[in-house]
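Tokens in:
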């Protein structure tokens, strides 16, 4: 008996994706957990597995199609592959497989096909227990914000306080459209009433574009999901957060000599990068200046100070900028952070990173030193309150008291939310980072 294969719930907040490759064809024998297709979501490429041993009888999607969580993408006959296996290979290892085929009814649906909730459910499920710092799950007046997890995820991505959003659903329930409408109205107020329409409202808060074809041929390219989410988040952050950028430079002459010497002896997988060192230095700075490791809740007039340090690192990929997060950076040594960073950067560039690996960051580092430039002003990634930009180091003559000597100097740019951080504290934070880079003994001296 044929049974449908559904798109499983791949991560909290992911509602749909785009099919980028089909791995099987009609008539193929498949095993449980075998990849059927690859789907691109907001932040990553995920493999959709088969929930049973059997044969594919129907494929209902094509490459380029947009599919939603819970949608039937294929159909198959469970048990066919395992029944045929003994003729080709008498090994007894396949014997337990028919157990899965004995119960194809909907009741024992495999774990990979769980996205559809029970029909009689009358009320939305409570917020997930693993999001204790999510503003949307904080109780206000004894009530939990009436919004589904996917809506809370969208609000977090856009830096929106969900308690400021007016729900239009039954009982005031907040939808994704309500969150986007809130962003659209905020953009209109800030830009003087300019229209903001389309799937990515923040991107269109501008005057209508002219007809460019009057001056020559053009092509139109739809935004990728990553670029669209980035456009929304950056537009909203730029328009709602009063940002200040602080500049400084660090003498990395001795540190760079140490780094190169270390890498000559180290395994390639443990290669030490300047970013790995900066993660540790910034983790120490975040402990010394806890307001940089916070989020601002304007609705409740509160500053949420996080007791954990999760540092995000911006990674350039062909599909756009992605920010994987290295967790508990304050508790790990630089060698451990270097190894983890190398692994996660490779996964990110290959689009094997999962959405969960890019959540929960409390501070971000964007290192463009490998590309070039003297300075830049990174945009704060809401709901964080600060981000560090790193530019290419260059040799400069520095005065040592008696003469000028050549030193390798690295420019740093710290952008922060001025509602939370004053200019003096911004300067102190960045000076702390520079001094720790120039003389690492400062990290020990300052605890």
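Residues out:
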């Amino acid at each position: 008996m044929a049974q449908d294969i559904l798109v499983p719930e791949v991560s909290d907040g992911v509602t749909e994706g785009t099919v980028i490759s089909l791995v099987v064809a009609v008539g193929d024998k498949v095993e449980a957990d075998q990849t059927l297709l690859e789907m691109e979501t907001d932040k990553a490429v995920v493999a959709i597995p088969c929930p049973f041993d059997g044969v594919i009888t129907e494929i209902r999607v094509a490459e380029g199609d947009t599919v939603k969580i819970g949608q039937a993408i294929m159909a198959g006959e469970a048990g066919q592959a395992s029944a045929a296996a003994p003729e080709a290979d008498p090994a007894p290892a396949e014997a337990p497989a028919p157990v899965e085929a004995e119960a194809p009814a909907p009741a024992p649906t495999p774990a990979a096909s769980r996205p559809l909730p029970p029909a009689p459910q009358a009320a939305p499920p409570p917020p997930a227990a693993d999001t204790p710092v999510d503003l949307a799950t904080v109780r206000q007046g004894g009530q939990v914000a009436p919004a589904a997890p996917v809506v809370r995820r969208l609000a977090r991505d856009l830096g929106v306080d969900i308690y400021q959003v007016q729900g239009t659903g039954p009982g005031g329930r907040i939808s994704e459209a309500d969150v986007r409408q809130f962003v659209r109205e905020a953009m209109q107020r800030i830009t003087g009433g300019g229209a903001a329409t389309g799937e990515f409202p923040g991107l269109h808060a501008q005057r209508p574009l002219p007809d460019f074809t009057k001056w020559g041929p053009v092509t139109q390219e739809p935004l990728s999901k990553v670029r669209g989410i980035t456009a929304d988040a950056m537009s909203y952050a730029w328009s709602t957060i009063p940002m200040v950028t602080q500049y400084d430079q660090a003498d990395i002459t001795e540190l760079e000599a140490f780094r190169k010497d270390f890498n000559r002896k180290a395994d390639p997988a443990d290669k030490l990068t300047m970013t790995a060192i900066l993660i540790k230095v910034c983790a120490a700075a975040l402990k010394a200046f806890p307001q940089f490791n916070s989020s601002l809740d304007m609705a409740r007039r509160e500053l949420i100070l996080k007791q954990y340090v999760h540092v995000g690192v911006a990674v350039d990929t062909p599909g756009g900028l992605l920010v994987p997060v290295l967790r508990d950076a304050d508790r790990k040594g630089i060698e451990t952070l270097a190894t983890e960073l190398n692994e996660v950067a490779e996964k990110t560039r290959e689009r094997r990173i999962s959405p969960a690996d890019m959540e929960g960051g409390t501070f971000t580092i964007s290192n463009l030193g490998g590309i070039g430039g003297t300075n830049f002003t990174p945009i704060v990634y809401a709901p964080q309150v600060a981000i560090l930009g790193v530019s290419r180091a260059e040799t400069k003559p520095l005065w040592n008291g008696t003469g000028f000597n050549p030193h390798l100097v690295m420019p740093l740019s710290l952008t922060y939310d001025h509602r939370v951080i004053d200019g003096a504290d911004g300067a102190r934070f960045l000076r702390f980072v520079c001094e720790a880079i120039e003389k690492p003994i400062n990290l020990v001296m300052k605890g």
